[in-house]
Amino acid sequence: MEDQNKQKQRRLPDWLKSPLPHGEKYSKVKHTIEENDLNTICTSGNCPNRGECWSAGTASFMILGEKCTRNCRFCDVVNVLPEAVDWREPRRLAESIRKLNLNHAVITSVARDDLRDGGAAVWVKTIEMVKHLNPGITIEALIPDLNGKREPIAKIINAGPEVISHNMETVRRLTPHIRNLARYERSLKVIQQIAESGLVAKSGIMLGFGEQKEEVLETMDDLSEVGCDVLTIGQYLQPDSHLEKVQEYVRPDTFNMYREEALKRGFAAVESSPLVRSSYHAEKHVYAKRKKEGSYKS
Hints:
The chain contains twelve helices and eight strands. It is of the alpha/beta class and about 300 residues long.
């Protein structure tokens, strides 16, 4: 009976089934990534939307290697001492984006606590190179907290991505357990610095860690107070058996409720459903701040 219960717990509900990879665009994205020795959070993070996004010709690129200096309980990215910075990576990425003919690129990175600036210099070179080789492109930079250091964050801001995102990942109470070395208040300050710069500030959380409704609403309030423009809410899925177990598969109607609550709090854009991840429909968020201020006309 116990084995049957475990098997039932592992079975995903129907609303969490994602489409299988397919099509010419999927193959082109996969080939380009492999050919140019690039990393993506799609593969390193075992994202359930990889098939949908790659089949649509989009991907979330990951810079600064594939090894992270942190060991968060939700993430399957390898946690070991990273290699030396590859300064040729920014050009390879920029050329790959040009080859894929993308109008919008999402770029993220592993945490690099081994570097004095947390990798900010590589971020700047990457953003500048992508924009140089891809005129007219828009960029979302999904950054780690860089230990809350304002100067490195300011350098990334000044490089001019249209959106800068930093994920809260979970509620205040669960942050010390779920996010290795991260601090809830520090992340809020990172988002506040982004918002005050005039760029679109974005963040995301996952549900299913055992959080309570009041805690989720508190996180929304905290993000709204520091000026966050865009919020993503998705279901946590356990990437590997050694990582945090799923406490609850949250139903779609609950995600809809949270979407309405977030919109009431003034967020310009909210993506909230079980399979939503940080980069889901990211191209729609470029004009979120103008929409929030009422100056955007579609």
